[in-house]
Structure formats: structure tokens, C-alpha cells
Amino acid sequence: MSSLSLPEKVNVLLVGAGGREHAIAWRLCQSPHLGKLWVDSNANAGLLALGSACPEEFTLRRKYYLERWLAQENIGFIIIGPEGPLAEGMVDALTTPERPIFGPTKAAARLEWDKAYAKTIMRQTSIPTPEGRVCTTLGSALAYVTERDEPCVVKATGLCAGKGVTVCKDKNEAIAAVRKCMESKEFGDAGTSVVIEERLEGQEVSILALVDGRTITLLDTCQDHKQVGDGDTGPNTGGMGAFCPTPLLSDADLQAIARDVFVPAVDGLRRQGIEFRGVLFAGLMLTHAGPKVLEFNCRFGDPEAQVLMARFQGDLLKTLWLTATGRLADAQFSFDPRTACCVVVCSEGYPGEICKGMPIVGLEDLPKASTSPIGPFFFHSGTKAEKIGKIVTNGGRIVGATALGDFLAEAARQATVAAGQISFNGAFYRKDIGHRVLNHIQNAKLVKNHEAV
Ligand code: AMP
Ligand code: GLY
């Protein structure tokens, strides 16, 4: 695989149907190497405007059909967006010597699909992470949360689209969270066991790195907003908005994080005979005792991908190909110096029960070929094209309104205004994306001014 060079034109299949994939597809369309772009059969309306839909659902249950179809359409590169197909083993099943896949194998993606395994790797490799315990029975989990005095966080160990984590303020909440996972099985098999860990305080950052097995290249840092309500209130979601870059980490901090988190994680897997290729994403909390890893993901984040892609400068297709074929060191790309901010417009009820099929008003077409866009861009997540000109809601997170600005405050203002242009029955969005960093900067300025007088 490592000697495979990028053809002049390559047909690409992008697996995944959400905002992350729309943002990735948009950048792929700007690559001179892109032949035909294929997208998921259930892709959102934004993706369908950029690529052709696969004739059937892309799932490994249909492996032999898929292999025939991939050969028939001469697909030379597959890019996997979401965690589900990685956990299912799609990379293992469909990689061939001539057809690389961007994304880790099932064994490498276990860092994401099994939080207990991730904790074990972190302990073995001394990656800083909250102190905690894995519980596999309801009795042991209830006993552990009851005996703890400090507030804790209860996490279903399997994949839950960002919703399987409860940050508890007291014992009663922790007991309820354990019961939700292990007794009422709200997250199905994903909650059969839980990680219970100390509750930390601090700013969060999402640090994503491209990894080709050996070379690790950190991308600019993002901050996501997991909780559904303004002021970081309410239950966790997949992510209500993000911005990039963050001013929270210096180059020296990032080097330390590469050394203390990314290198040990990739090496720890390698010692088990597992090579990681794709995106490794560490969700970190910046505590008084230094950065600690809350979770690993093995793919681009969403909405992180939307702000990263808004700023990405270079040939994304080539960059991902070089990563998948073990030559990341040859990739050349950079990021727009401006800040990007994304505000996600959601359906009423999200992250719980939602209604689908609401007509959406206010969506502009994304500019297709511009490399220096001014935005705002509307990256579609849960949208569906019903008929020409009519787009309806089809999920919890509907559209990411993403804007660039010279400063975070400007990018956040523009993205929030753009989010307000999207309307459908029950639409809501957070109006304070960036607030923690903006307050932090504001406070820092006050301290500085105070020192100056
Ligand atoms: P995770 O899926 O593990 O990243 O958790 C989702 C979100 O829950 C994180 O982005 C944090 O906002 C919060 N969280 C997770 N673990 C902790 C922790 N140990 N302390 C405080 N908050 C946490
Ligand atoms: N936004 C966080 C995630 O994609 O997991």
C-alpha cells in the first residue's frame, strides 16, 4: 500500500451522511484529483448536491454486493466519516492493495468504540486521564458511585453518538445515570458496562491529528460545545457548535500534548500489533493539573470537521490519500489564519425525541469551487431533499452555519446570525458558541488592565 501513488483522477466513495461529510465532500470537490464522488445512499441534501448517491445502503451486511459495486464503478479510494463503519470493520473488509481506505481498522478504532479499552491503553502508556473505574455489573457500578464522595461522570463504554455520558452533580444523579445505562438499557449494548470517573473542571479542546501509522500531524485545535443549552446546560449532544483555532494552547503546549498523548497512544497500539491510520481525535480537558484525555475518537469530529474544513488550505483528497498510504510526511496543507465558528441548528427535542419532515427555509447553496470562501457556509447534517427546491429536516442536528472572521468574536457573531437565517418548525440553536473562551479573553484583558494601572 505504501508505494501506491495518487492517480491523476480517482473515483472516491465518501461514507457517512452528516455535516462532517458535507464539509469534507465540499473540500474534496476542490481537488484536481477527484474523478467521480459517490456518497451514501441516505446522504443529506447538501452531500447529494456534490456527489452521486450509492444505489444501496453501504453496510458490511452486503459485503459481496459492495465489492462488486466498488469494482464496477472503479472506485479507487474510500473515505470513512463516522465511527459506526469503523467499529463494524469496514476498513478491514474492503481495503485492497489497489484501493486504500482513509480510516483505522476495527482494532485501532477500538480506542473509540470501547471506552474501557481506551482507559486501559491510557493507563498502560501513562496518558493523563481522569481517575476512574470500569464496572461491568449493575451492582458493582451502584456500589462504586455510592461509596464515592466526589462528583463523578458516568459513561456507557460503547458508541452512543455523544449521548452516553452523564456529568453528575451528586450521588443521586450518578445512580440514575448508572441505572439508565445498565438497568433500563437506554443505550442498548453500548451501556452493558460503564466507565465511572472523577469529574474534572476546565476548558475543553478537541485535538485532531492525521496519523499514517508513524507520522502524526496535529491539526489546529477546536473547541466543541457538547451541552444542548446556552451556558453549557442540559444533556450532552453530539456537539452544538465549535470554533477553530482556540487560543488556549501554545505551540509548546501542543508539542507536549503530541508527546504525552498522541505518541504514546499510537505506540501503545503498535505494541499490540495494531497500526493506526486515519484521524486520531483526543477530547481533552485543560485542568489545573494539566491536560487530561476525556476520550479518544478515531475520525473527524462533528462539528469540528466543519470548522476545520472551512479553514483547510491545500488538496484534501491528496492529504487523506497520503495519510492512508503511509506517506503523510509528503502532505502539504495549511489553515486559513482566520477563525471559523460553526453554530448547529437543531430540531426541537434534540438530543431526545425529535420530529422529522419540517420544511427548511433559508438554505443557500454552498459555493462549490471557491478555495478562498468568505461564507457563511451552511453544511447540511440531517436534511433531506424531498423534491427539487424542497429540503426538509431529517434528524436532530440539521445544519451547521459556519462563518470565518478575523477574531473569534466576529466569526461567532456571523455564524450565529447565519444560524438565525435558517428556519423550520421547532428550530433552535445555541447563541453563545465561543462564550468560555471569549469570557476567558475578556477576564485576561481585565487582569492585564488592572496590572497596568
Ligand atoms: P466524552 O464522550 O467522554 O468526551 O464525554 C462527553 C463530554 O462529557 C465531554 O466533552 C465533557 O464535556 C464531559 N465529560 C466527559 N468526561 C468528563 C470528566 N471526567 N469530567 C468532566 N466532564 C466530562
Ligand atoms: N463533536 C464531538 C464528536 O464528534 O465526537
Protein described:
This protein is an alpha+beta fold and 453 residues long. It has 3 domains: 10-106, 3-Layer(aba) Sandwich (Rossmann fold), CATH 3.40.50; 131-198, Dna Ligase, domain 1; 203-438, D-amino Acid Aminotransferase, Chain A, domain 1, CATH 3.30.470.20. The chain contains 14 helices and 24 strands. Strands 3-2-1-4-5 form a 5-stranded parallel beta sheet, sandwiched between helices. The structure holds adenosine monophosphate and glycine. Glycine is lined by residues 162, 224, 238-239, 297, 301-302, 304.
Task: Summarize, please.
The protein is an alpha+beta fold and 453 residues long. The chain folds into three domains: 97 residues, 3-Layer(aba) Sandwich (Rossmann fold); 68 residues, ATP-grasp fold, A domain (Dna Ligase, domain 1); 236 residues, D-amino Acid Aminotransferase, Chain A, domain 1 (2-Layer Sandwich).
